[in-house]
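# nightly structure sweep
# worker-07 picked up a monomer target from the shared queue
# config: single-sequence mode, recycle default, output format = structure tokens
# input follows
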Amino acid sequence: MFQGHRPRIALLPIIFILICAGCTDPTGPGIDDYSFVTAVAFFDENGNGVQDDQERTLFPGSQISVLGLERQVIPQTTTGEAIIPFVPAGEQTLVLNEETLPPYFQTNGLLIRVPQDSAARFPVTLPIGVNTLHSYMAFGDSITDDAGYISLLAERLRGHFGRAQVINEGFQNALSRDGAWRIDAVLRRWRPACTLIMFGTNDWNEIECVHEFPGFTIDSLRTIIQETKATQSLPFIATFPPANPANWRIPAARNEWVSRMNALIRQLAAEEGAVLVEVHDAFIQTGDLSQLFDDHVHPNDRGYEIIANQFFEAITQPRGGSNPPVPGI
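# output follows
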């Protein structure tokens, strides 16, 4: 999506000083002493603090408020603006709650004076260093290499952000430790803004990972996340999907192992500050796993659509209090 080399910017809460034009007496009770104020958060792709013509991605779900005032904010889903009613005359401070932004997005320290009849614009950025904006590297085994979810995800991301490139770095029969050995080279080759990690399915075939649980899986995934953060790419790690219980090649013990491993992956994501992508539970919630596979482990079109949806939601939806820290900060 976005191409760009940007310097790191000191991170401070974003503050706008709003001047209510035409409000003459801040202590008086007249209706002219109040106004409706509009504000909008936009994706400042080049980090210059100004909404340029090509920067059309807005965050209509972001929470913008007047500091010290309890006011119901009226979101405008079509324009992306927030309308704040009955703001008193005089200088007012508007704030944006970063927990209402998608993961890793953040505001930059700013002080702006705007007239009453124009929108306060909050620039929002991604801390990706010299990595390539709007690029996503899908990193995994044959479930990734099959490319079943990649085109679906790319289409949805382009619809949301305007631009997106999803790079396929999956490889057949790979174990999680293969990913740990390989991650540094592919990160430096592509410099992706975000790295989408889904490894572990094939580790079931390794005696060490089954009989000496969890074997090398979690250590390998931890290495992948840490290497990703070291290059200022933003890590998203998926729980791996269950295997097809209707296939004769899958014993019941395998999906029990999958569930145990995914519990550790959830813990790992929290420990390392990576965004968790809940693929496993999304499969389970369909109620009939047999309808989601082409064979014993590879999803069909319906299964890949679930994976694409889970990654899309993780990338674009507000994460609340779980918004991860910025890598390297």
